[in-house]
Write a structure and sequence with these properties.
- It is a single chain.
- It is globular and about 40 Å long.
- By secondary structure, the chain is of the alpha+beta class.
- It starts with a helix and ends in an 11-residue tail after the last helix.
- It has 4 helices and 5 strands.
C-alpha cells in the first residue's frame, strides 16, 4: 500500500469517529513491516479522559494482533493545516518507534515527519533506570 492509499484509509476511518462532544473527527492508519494495515478513529466518552485518539486506536489494534514493527502512521482531520498527533499519541508513537508519520488534512495537504522531529525528547525505557 502506498502512502497515498494509507492516507485514504485514514480518511475512511475518520468517517467512523465517535465524536459527539468535540465534533472533531480524526482517522488514522498504520502500515506494518508485514504489509498489513490497521485503521482507527477517535472514540470519545462523556468522561473525557476515557476517550481514545485515532492514532492510538490504530496502533493498539496492530499491537493487539501481534504486530510490533510499524513502518508508518497516517493521521487525517478536517484542519487548516496537516493534523498533528497530540502529546499522548506522540508518546505511543515513540513507544513503538514508528519512524515515519504522515500528517494530513481533508484539503490534500500532507506533511511527513520523522519520530525524532515529532518528539525529540521522548520518554523511553532508558529513562526508567
Amino acid at each position: 500500500m502506498t502512502d497515498e492509499e494509507l492516507i485514504e484509509t485514514a480518511k475512511a476511518y475518520r468517517k467512523r469517529a465517535y465524536a459527539p462532544y468535540s465534533h472533531f473527527a480524526v482517522g488514522a492508519a498504520v502500515r506494518t513491516q508485514s504489509g498489513r494495515v490497521y485503521g482507527g478513529c477517535n472514540i470519545e466518552n462523556a468522561s473525557y479522559p476515557v476517550a481514545c485518539c485515532a492514532e492510538r486506536t490504530a496502533i493498539f489494534k496492530a499491537v493487539s494482533e501481534g504486530e510490533r514493527a510499524i513502518e508508518v502512521l497516517a493521521v487525517v482531520a478536517d484542519t487548516d493545516g496537516p493534523c498533528a498527533p497530540c502529546g499522548m499519541c506522540r508518546q505511543a508513537i515513540s513507544e513503538f518507534r514508528i519512524p515515519r508519520i504522515l500528517m494530513a488534512n481533508l484539503k490534500g495537504e500532507v506533511r511527513e515527519v520523522t519520530l525524532q522531529e515529532l518528539l525529540p525528547f521522548a520518554f523511553s525505557e532508558q529513562d526508567l533506570g
